[in-house]
C-alpha cells in the first residue's frame, strides 16, 4: 500500500492506496476516507456557523447605524420645527410692532 497524508485545517488524515490487491488496505482506505469526509463535513458546518454569525453581526451593526441615523433625523426635524415656531413668533412680534408704529405715526395726524 502507498500511504499519503492529507491535511484538513491542521489535522492530518492518512490514506492508503491499494497496491497488489491487498483487501485489508482497501478496508483501511475506506475507513480513512470516511473519517476524512466526516472532518470535511464538520469543517463545513463550522464555516457555515461562522458565516451566519458574521452575517448576523453585520446586520446588527447596520441596523444600529440606521436607527442612530433615524434618531438624528428626528432630532433635526424637531430643531427645524422649533426654529419655524421661533420665526413665526418673531414674525408676529414684527407685525405687532408695525401695527404699533402705524398707530403712533397716525396719532399726530389725528391730533392736527
Please characterize this protein's 3D structure:
The protein is α+β, with helices and mostly antiparallel strands and 112 residues long. It has one helix at 23-111, and strands at residues 2-8, 11-17. The chain is rod-shaped. The model has no long low-confidence stretch (mean pLDDT 83).
Chart the SSEs and their pairings.
Layout: E1 2-8, E2 11-17, H1 23-111
Antiparallel strand pairs: 1-2
Order of helices and strands: EEH
Mean pLDDT: 83
Helix content: over 70%
Number of DSSP-assigned strands = 2
Q: Return residue spans where pLDDT drops below 50 for at least 5 consecutive residues.
A: none
Work out the strand percent.
5-15%
Task: State the major sheet.
Answer: 2 strands, antiparallel
Distance between the termini: 130 Å
Q: Measured on Cα atoms, how large is the radius of gyration?
A: 41 Å
Structural class designation = alpha+beta
Count the DSSP helices: 1
Strand arrangement across the biggest beta sheet? 1-2
User: Which word captures the global form?
Assistant: rod-shaped
Amino acid at each position: 500500500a502507498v500511504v499519503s497524508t492529507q491535511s484538513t485545517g491542521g489535522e492530518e488524515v492518512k490514506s492508503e492506496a491499494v497496491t497488489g490487491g491487498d483487501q485489508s488496505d482497501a478496508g483501511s482506505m475506506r475507513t480513512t476516507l470516511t473519517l476524512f469526509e466526516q472532518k470535511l463535513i464538520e469543517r463545513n458546518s463550522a464555516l457555515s456557523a461562522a458565516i451566519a454569525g458574521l452575517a448576523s453581526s453585520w446586520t446588527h451593526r447596520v441596523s444600529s447605524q440606521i436607527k442612530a441615523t433615524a434618531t438624528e433625523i428626528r432630532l433635526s426635524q424637531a430643531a427645524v420645527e422649533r426654529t419655524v415656531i421661533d420665526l413665526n413668533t418673531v414674525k408676529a412680534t414684527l407685525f405687532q410692532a408695525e401695527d404699533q408704529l402705524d398707530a403712533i405715526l397716525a396719532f399726530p395726524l389725528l391730533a392736527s
